[in-house]
């Protein structure tokens, strides 16, 4: 795992500000009860990481997480390079997005494959379509609650699904430099509750010529 | 299947959508776009019907935002969001959520719509009536790739047209322009046959018709001739006359769905040129979701160097 050289350019932290979220008016983090109005605790973080080996060279990994975002969702999206489509002129493929595989961890567990497909008819038009697999619908049994399984494993003494101390330490080895950088530089940015994060995070991707997908 | 939610939030609506989808046994999401209709109670029925018909061609999630007007000061201070979730046979080929906003939340409808948008899929906003002055700067318009307005639904269409010229941003489009597509393809096909330079042009229509004005501007921009606007009894656009050195190219539609095409030196023939219902116009608009460059050209009425495939 390799950290970006310029942590200021490739990491963003922020706090939610008061706004309307999903039809309700909500308070900002600094206005919450029992929160120091000058707190620098972040409620949103976005970082770019690289895996330093031959296979993943040149593939950026963008992680973002936060409270009070548009909706509660956990997803892993693999976004593929744009296909060249050289036989077609640029207007024909103008609407072609990047193909993607989205693994929905929660809620509505499943996998979506997203790709461009030609619209039926004589004209050359392309539209993004999806192939969808919903885990909850493919079995008549419902899967156990997230902690049900873990508690059973604790009772059985089976540690397969728990992180080992090496894993935890390795995670902190990656995150500590970022935390230290944030402690020394600047303050968290602000983002409106109910939005998908601060403008700084959009700019962070824009400088790589990318944009966040809408989950 | 219909689920009614009173005094609700976007996350509860999202749960109701998943619940409804599971209940009817179609868990997979095959919808290709999110359509947001911003309207009032009076126009909601017709717009939802049009959107549902269009959804047979473009399976979509339709979010209908209806702002409820409070009639008493007491009601005005209360903020409430009601939702009606329709899935399955009740909602064409997609899902429909009717959002009714009361009080303060009406000003923040975008906060309700944002969590309900389909992941990644393009967003289209349609104002059947009461389009904002600057569609792209409207909080709901800003969420969308494509913003559809309708100059037929305003009191003074030609003033609205000038406003659209000033507020144009890539992605804007208007149903007055969509209504012209058959006219434009017939005219382009007629000129492919006539193959002579155009020296004069005239557009005949009822008074204050924004489509006729757009058509005239489009012809001015593309043919570099000045176009005469002739007022007739209608309905809508009745004829286009293009003068060449050998005679006139005329498409004449005095009434009904049948038009006559006359080319110099050829017998005249009949063409089908009917006035299409709103659902067909919306379905056509949704076929291409990139910016409509020709609409921009027609709005401004100035010449450009576009490739012929755009005609």
Automatic annotation (TrEMBL), chain B:
It comes from the Bacteria. InterPro entries: G6PDH_assembly_OpcA (IPR004555), OpcA_G6PD_C (IPR046802), OpcA_G6PD_N (IPR046801). Residues 51-164 form the Glucose-6-phosphate dehydrogenase assembly protein OpcA N-terminal domain. Residues 170-299 form the Glucose-6-phosphate dehydrogenase assembly protein OpcA C-terminal domain. This is Glucose-6-phosphate dehydrogenase assembly protein OpcA. It comes from Streptomyces phaeoluteigriseus.
């Amino acid at each position: 795992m390799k950290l970006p050289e310029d942590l200021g350019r490739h990491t963003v932290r922020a706090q939610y500000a008061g706004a309307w979220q999903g039809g309700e008016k909500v308070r900002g983090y600094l206005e919450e009860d029992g929160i120091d109005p000058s707190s620098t605790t972040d409620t949103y973080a976005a970082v770019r990481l690289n895996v330093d080996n031959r296979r993943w060279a040149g593939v950026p990994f963008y992680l973002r997480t936060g409270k009070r975002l548009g909706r509660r969702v956990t997803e892993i999206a693999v976004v593929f390079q744009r296909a060249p489509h050289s036989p077609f002129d640029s207007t024909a493929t103008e609407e072609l997005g990047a193909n993607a595989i989205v693994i929905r961890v929660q809620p509505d567990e499943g996998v979506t494959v997203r790709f461009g497909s030609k619209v039926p008819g004589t004209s050359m038009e392309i539209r993004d379509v999806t192939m969808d697999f919903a885990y909850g619908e493919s079995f008549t049994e419902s899967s156990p609650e997230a902690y049900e399984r873990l508690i059973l494993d604790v009772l059985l003494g089976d540690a397969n699904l728990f992180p080992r101390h090496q894993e935890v330490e390795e995670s902190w080895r990656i995150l500590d430099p970022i935390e230290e950088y944030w402690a020394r530089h600047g303050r968290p940015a602000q983002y409106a509750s109910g939005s998908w994060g601060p403008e700084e995070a959009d700019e962070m991707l824009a400088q790589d010529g990318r944009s966040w997908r809408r989950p | 299947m219909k689920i009614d939610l009173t005094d609700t939030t976007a996350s509860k609506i999202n749960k109701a959508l998943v619940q409804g989808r599971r209940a009817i046994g179609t868990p997979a999401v095959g919808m290709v776009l999110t359509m947001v209709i911003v309207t009032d109670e009076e126009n909601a029925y017709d717009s939802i019907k049009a959107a549902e018909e269009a959804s047979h061609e473009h399976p979509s999630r339709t979010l209908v935002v209806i702002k409820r007007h409070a009639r008493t000061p007491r009601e005005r201070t209360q903020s409430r969001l009601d939702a009606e979730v329709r899935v399955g046979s009740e909602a064409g080929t997609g899902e429909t959520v009717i959002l009714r906003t009361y009080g303060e939340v009406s000003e923040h409808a975008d906060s309700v719509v944002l969590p309900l948008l389909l992941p990644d899929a393009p967003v289209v906003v349609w104002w059947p009536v009461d389009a904002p002055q600057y569609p792209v700067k409207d909080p709901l318009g800003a969420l969308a790739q494509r913003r559809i307005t309708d100059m037929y639904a305003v009191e003074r269409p030609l003033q609205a047209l000038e406003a659209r010229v000033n507020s144009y941003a890539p992605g804007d489009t208007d149903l007055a322009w969509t209504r012209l597509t058959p006219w434009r393809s017939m005219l382009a096909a007629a000129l492919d046959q006539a193959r002579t330079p155009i020296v004069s042009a005239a557009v005949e229509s009822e008074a204050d018709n924004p489509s006729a004005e757009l058509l005239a501007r489009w012809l001015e921009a593309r043919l570099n001739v000045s176009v005469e606007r002739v007022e007739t009894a209608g309905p809508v656009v009745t004829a286009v006359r293009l003068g060449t050195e050998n005679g006139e190219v005329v498409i004449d539609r005095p009434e009904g769905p049948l038009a006559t095409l006359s080319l110099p030196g050829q017998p005249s023939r009949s063409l089908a040129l009917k006035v299409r219902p709103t659902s067909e116009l919306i379905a056509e608009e949704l076929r291409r979701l990139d910016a409509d460059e020709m609409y921009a050209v027609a709005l401004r009425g100035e010449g450009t160097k576009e490739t012929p495939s755009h005609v």
